[in-house]
Hints:
alpha+beta, Phosphatase 2c, domain 1, 4-stranded antiparallel sheet, two-stranded antiparallel ribbon, about 35% helix, globular
Amino acid sequence: MGFEHAIRASKGGRNYQEDTADVLEHAAALTAVLADGMGGHAGGALASGLACKFFLHAFKTSSGEVPARLAEALDLANAAIAHETAQNVQLSGMGCTLVGAAFGPDGVEWVSVGDSPLFLVREDEIVLLNEDHSLAPELDKLAAAGKMS
């Protein structure tokens, strides 16, 4: 099974880029990761770079079923960011979102944290696969229920 892939980033309203994406091809599979540094916080670009690097390394070197490997990779990426912030107080609050997906003969499995979306595009249909883990959807629910304005 072969995979075609590409990575492209576009700079948003800021004059710097805090997103990192990377891909790992292995056996009959492909693992992709995207991390978006938290804007307005110190070290967003560093956090996203660390998260992608450690995520792919952990996924590649772990064994077992894909869901467990994805969860372990996410945990190790988070630990790498926590270690870096513990070493440098100026990076306090550093973080990023992360979406990691493993594509193989059985389909796609993923893990995500934060508000970066993961879409499935097939023919004329686009489907959001993951949920937004930020505070914004919760605030929207409270407003819709009339519990806040």
